[in-house]
TPT domain-containing protein (Angiostrongylus costaricensis), 263 residues
Amino acid sequence: MIFLMTPAIRSAVFYVGSTLFCSLLGKIVVTRFFFDYPIVILMLQMATTLFIIELLRVIGVLKLSPYSFDKGRHFFLPSILFCIAQWLTLSAFEGIGMPAFDSVKRVTPVIILCASSAISRQSRLNNAQLIGVIGVSLGSLLTVNLELSLDRYSLFYGLMAATLQAVAYMQFEMLSRTYQAVELLYVNSFNSLIFFLVADVVQDEIRDAFMYMLTSAHPSFGGVLAILLLSGILIQFVTFLCLEHNGALRTQILSNIRAAVQV
């Protein structure tokens, strides 16, 4: 039955399902196995994505032109913004330093709607749409954080991640008019890998992560991490596919619904 749906509905269903699975798996890796190295996790995801795409491209399964600096330049801003938003989100999984981070991030749809209206130079927002978006954002915020407790770090970094992700999604939506989802995935993964490699020079997580794997890793950790890395490819592809068919606002609304359901 699902294959009879429109591409927009199909991509939305896959997006909610894959993000729900990957979010739960990411929390397991960070909170249960105590592998609290977000840059390393994201770096490995991007490296795995690039390896598989390049392999499929070389053997002729995917018809893609190789990465170029011209493409990388067009993707530079959204890739960097999305990387920082992902890093902040993964860093907040532990929940100790920023317990209300995820609830604050639920305001992202409102930011996207206001920014889209400002860019299109509309004199005023559609009241029905604005009320609906605020309702979804507020509902998911309250569902994620029933105690209504906010701390300054969660508020600051949550709003930062929400703003960065909103701008990145809007930029990727514009790029999706020129590039297919698999091209968005390919170029963004290349840019992101470079960013995380540079970020590790500052954070120096690779050495600590390597020592963790040698000395403290649980026997089942390798299998769970491998599943997370492979599922990370799926979630990135489905995200770009959903942006292509549904746009930035609807994609983020779906993310809010997923967060509410996950609780």
Q: What stands out?
A: The mean pLDDT is 88. Residues 9-262 form one domain. The CA atoms of residues 69 and 75 lie 10 Å apart. The chain is about 80% helix and 0% strand.
